[in-house]
């Protein structure tokens, strides 16, 4: 497992001075076939960078990033999983207890879209019943080579109650937007002063509840 560090600065919208001082911590996992650009999406979101030749993830990599909503700051604990088949059996370790997932496919690779559907089915069967799932059609900058039509993926996403966007880690198209859309669907909980389940963001992740987690 690689740990590529993280970045506590928000790049996904809002301003640090406008939200409340509540911080909500959520586990998010990225799943998808190898070489669809999962690591590139995370690198673009967390560090604002893109590398044309990204090394394959071994096992999983862990990063963090925060986004600011109107009433809270959302801290994502991001697990970027390896897409190679030999690592498939490890995936439940990473999506177990996750409150959000992004399933990624390559719009120029029809097979990667079919594999994405398999991941969605697995999450529907084994992940938390309240998990927020998004489908990302990556490599939108290569639309001239697409084999998966936007309308096909959008219809599938609607049928399965998934958030859906086409993204490009290379140009940053919709990268911040998809994380922000997920943040807005997560259970932030009631405003300060009203009863709520609280979690200390300094606790180890395995000790935290999987529901609302604001402090």
UniProtKB/TrEMBL annotation:
Gene3D superfamilies: P-loop containing nucleotide triphosphate hydrolases (3.40.50.300). It catalyses: GTP + H2O = GDP + phosphate + H(+). One of its GO terms (cellular component) is early endosome. It is found in: Early endosome. The keyword ATP-binding does not apply. Residues 195-215 have a biased composition (Polar residues). Its EC number is 3.6.5.2. GO terms for molecular function: G protein activity; GTP binding. The keyword Nucleotidyltransferase does not apply. It comes from the Eukaryota. Belongs to the small GTPase superfamily. Rab family. PANTHER family: PTHR47978. This is small monomeric GTPase. The lineage of its organism: Eukaryota, Metazoa, Ecdysozoa, Nematoda, Chromadorea.
């Amino acid at each position: 497992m690689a740990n590529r560090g993280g970045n506590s600065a928000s790049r996904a919208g809002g301003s640090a001075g406008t939200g409340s001082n509540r911080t909500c911590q959520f586990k998010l996992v990225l799943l998808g076939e190898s070489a669809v650009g999962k690591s590139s999406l995370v690198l673009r979101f967390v560090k604002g960078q893109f590398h044309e030749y990204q090394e394959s993830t071994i096992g999983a990599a862990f990063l963090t990033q925060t986004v600011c909503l109107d009433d809270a700051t959302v801290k994502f604990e991001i697990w970027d999983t390896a897409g190679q088949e030999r690592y498939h059996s490890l995936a439940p370790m990473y999506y177990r207890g996750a409150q959000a997932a992004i399933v990624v496919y390559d719009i120029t690779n029809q097979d990667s879209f079919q594999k994405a559907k398999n991941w969605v089915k697995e999450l529907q069967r084994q992940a938390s019943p309240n998990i927020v799932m998004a489908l990302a059609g990556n490599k939108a900058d290569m639309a001239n080579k697409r084999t998966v039509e936007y309308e096909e993926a959008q219809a599938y996403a609607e049928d399965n109650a998934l958030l859906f966007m086409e993204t490009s880690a290379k140009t940053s198209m919709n990268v911040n937007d998809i994380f922000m859309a997920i943040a807005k669907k997560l259970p932030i909980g009631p405003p300060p002063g009203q009863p709520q389940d609280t979690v200390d963001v300094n606790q180890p992740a395995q000790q935290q509840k999987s529901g609302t987690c604001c402090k």
